[in-house]
Structure formats: C-alpha cells, structure tokens
Specification:
The chain is mainly alpha-helical. It is built from 8 helices and no strands.
Length: 215
C-alpha cells in the first residue's frame, strides 16, 4: 500500500468516526450525554480542576488566533525556502479547516456547559481551540518527519507537541468551556482533515513528478 493510499484510508476512517460522534451529539444520545456530564464533573472536582490560572494560560496559547498566526508564519517560511508545495498545503489546511469547523459548529449547534470558569461564546462542538492546536500539531509533526526522517530529535519534539495538545484539551475541560466529547471530536476532525489535505498534496506531487519524468 502506498503512503498516499494509507493516508487517504486513515482520513476516511478518522472523519467517519468524527461523523458518528457528531450525529450522536446532535441527537443528544443519552448515554453519551451522561458520560460527558459525569467526566466533566469528575474532572472539575479532581486536583486537575483546581489549576485555573494554568488552564487559562494554555487556553490563550492554544487559541485559533495564536495557532493560526503560527501556521501562516510557517507557510511563509516554507515559501521562503522554496518549499512552495508544502507552503500552499499548510495554508489550505488552515483556511479550509477553519471554514469546516465553523460549518460543523453551526450544524451541530451544541450549547456549552453551564457554570463556565472563564466565559466563552459560540457553540461547543467541536472545540475550536483543540481543533486549531491539533491541526497545527499534525502539520508540524508531518513536516518534521519529512525533513528530519524520524531521528531522535523528531521523537523528542513529537513528545513535547503531544504534551502541548493534551494541555490544551485539559485546559478546555478545566475551564468548563467544553464537554469531553467536544475535545475528542476536535482531535478526530483535525487529524482527519489534515490527512485528507495531505493525501491530496501527495497525489498532486506524484502527478507532477511523473510529468517531469516524461519531459
């Protein structure tokens, strides 16, 4: 199986799981709603729920404005070093991902949890902060693997990025701005969307290279 086909299948599987979750949230599937309330309440009463200042800081760090700005700077840097295919792919993923997120939020129209520690507006599913953080994380990990070829530095940075994503997930729960299924949905949507964009880029790149061979 080629890398492109593998990424395409992973994208379809991940987006399929997200679709199922979105439907369950939309119809307010009772067992899922009960789990959401139970897990959110348990998180809030545990020691993890007491670090409001840390969660507020991580929320700011993982905001769509910060992560989106970083992605644009990354795209400009890639363009500067003549990696224009990657640059356009990053921009497509960020702009298209934001549009996709807004559409899904409007379609599902889930109300946020009550008693938010730091008030937030808009619909709850999926989490915009977690989506944008996960999307940028997927982009960075892919680029690092492409250029570093999976050496020890890659795995070190991957661990740091994973901790950062987990921190933003915990922050959104700690501030009671989202239910657990909101954050899970964002992880699935962001990774599935990036895999889909990546598979399209790989397909176009393959066609371009094949055309150059025939020239």
């Amino acid at each position: 199986m080629t890398v492109n086909r593998r990424n395409q299948q992973l994208a379809l599987g991940t987006l399929g799981l997200f679709g199922i979750l979105a439907i369950l949230v939309k119809i307010q599937f009772a067992p899922l709603m009960a789990l959401d309330r139970q897990w959110l309440g348990g998180f809030q009463t545990s020691w993890l729920g007491q670090h409001v200042r840390l969660w507020d800081w991580l929320t700011t760090l993982g905001s769509p404005a910060i992560t989106g700005g970083f992605a644009v700077l990354l795209a400009l840097f890639l363009w500067r070093i003549h990696q224009r295919g990657w640059s356009l792919t990053v921009l497509t993923a960020i702009i298209g991902g934001d549009a996709l997120l807004l559409v899904v939020k409007q379609l599902v129209s889930r109300i946020r949890p009550t008693q938010q520690v730091v008030a937030d507006s808009g619909f709850s599913f999926p989490s915009g902060h977690v989506f944008s953080t996960m999307l940028v994380a997927c982009i960075v990990v892919t680029l690092l693997f492409h250029f570093l070829k999976g050496n020890w530095l890659f795995w070190t940075i991957l661990a740091i990025i994973a901790i950062g994503v987990l921190g933003v997930v915990l922050a959104r729960l700690g501030l009671r701005d989202h239910f657990p299924s909101d954050t899970l949905g964002s992880l699935l949507l962001a990774s599935g969307w990036w895999l889909q964009v990546l598979s399209i880029y790989e397909r176009l790149q393959g066609k371009h290279q094949a055309a150059k061979v025939w020239e």
